[in-house]
Amino acid sequence: MEATIEVRGLRKRFGPRLAVDGLSFTAAPGLVTGFVGPNGAGKSTTMRMILGLDRPDEGAALVGGRPYRSLRTPLCHLGAMLDASAVHPARRARDHLRWLAHANGIPARRVGEVIELAGLGSVANRPAGGFSLGMRQRLGIAAALLGDPPALMFDEPVNGLDPEGVAWIRGLLRSLAAQGRAVLVSSHLMSELEGGADHLVVIGRGRVIADTGVAELLAAASGGRTELRTPDRQRAMTALAREGAEVAAAERDAVTVSGLPAERIIEVLTAARVPFTGIAEHRATLEEAYMELTRDAVEFRAGTGGEAL
Ligand SMILES: Nc1ncnc2c1ncn2[C@@H]1O[C@H](COP(=O)(O)OP(=O)(O)OP(=O)(O)O)[C@@H](O)[C@H]1O
């Protein structure tokens, strides 16, 4: 069973504050769709509307073509983790999952399966109140997987996790998408999605700024630049500029060259007898691509912590 998460013209106002301003996008089956924007951009509000927890003023959110609230067995259509702390602290992890399964008509044997999938085997009989953040995230993810849903949604799942936890979640998201599921994952840090997302929906002030494949975005941001290392930077820059290249000094012995292909750079340097120790076509990071994409949006420029006011 395939399911798409679809948001159509969503709008939500809290008093004077327009939190979501006519948002439309799709998270398609088989892809991890990163949902990115600075703090306050409207990600959580959008996710709450997808789950029917907040009512939109306008527009609709659909899971497999239907509003979440109209689904008879919602956990079997969309699994979600919005707030990993939403567990009774005295309740054992296994009992929390059993209770959820029971309430949703899911067979009890599935509880053991998701405990294994989420790597909770050794702590499943302990009260969730004593769990570390990483363990709570894993419990939230186990709950999202209970109904074996074709669509999944996670709000900032790697926030505050150590590198091992981040790598684990990234691998899990990838494998869920590889099984054909639609996976929507939010983050306010672009770097957290590096290597994890196939598609990106970037939002700011409740609006879509970009809706693009990660590969296309990185290719566009890499933009034919080459990085050169040379002990004789000044002569290299002069020789390349004479050939019409745009050159800029980078850190230590590095020069960034654009406007000339790498083969031509090598020819020019060789002819001018300028030594070089390395040459590589530049590959933009997701963070660089994000900065380029959002260069004109002041709210992003303060960096990752900028409040979208
Ligand atoms: N229940 C609410 N009442 C009033 N304002 C709200 C409410 N929920 C959200 N907002 C406001 O709506 C805007 C969007 O908030 P939201 O939490 O959706 O952003 P976000 O992108 O998820 O941010 P973060 O990365 O910090 O989680 C913010 O200005 C927030 O203060």
Describe this structure as you would to a colleague:
- It contains 10 helices and 13 strands.
- α3 (109-117) packs across α4 and α6 packs across α9 (286-293).
- It is an alpha/beta fold.
- It has helices at residues 43-50, 93-103, 109-117, 133-145, 163-178, 214-222, 233-242, 262-271, 286-293, 298-301, and strands spanning 5-14, 17-27, 32-36, 58-63, 78-81, 151-155, 182-187, 199-204, 207-213, 225-229, 246-249, 254-258, 278-281.
- It has 2 domains: 5-213, P-loop containing nucleotide triphosphate hydrolases (Rossmann fold, 3-Layer(aba) Sandwich), CATH 3.40.50.300; 224-281, Alpha-Beta Plaits (2-Layer Sandwich), CATH 3.30.70.100.
- Residues 301-309 have low confidence and may be disordered.
- The site of adenosine-5'-triphosphate has 12 residues, from β2 and α1.
- Residues 14, 17, 19, 37, 39-45, 188 line the site of adenosine-5'-triphosphate.
Features:
10 helices; 4-stranded antiparallel sheet; 25% strand; 32% helix; 309 residues; binds adenosine-5'-triphosphate; Rossmann fold; 2 domains; alpha/beta; ATP binding; nucleotide-binding; 6-stranded mixed sheet; AAA+_ATPase; Alpha-Beta Plaits; disordered C terminus
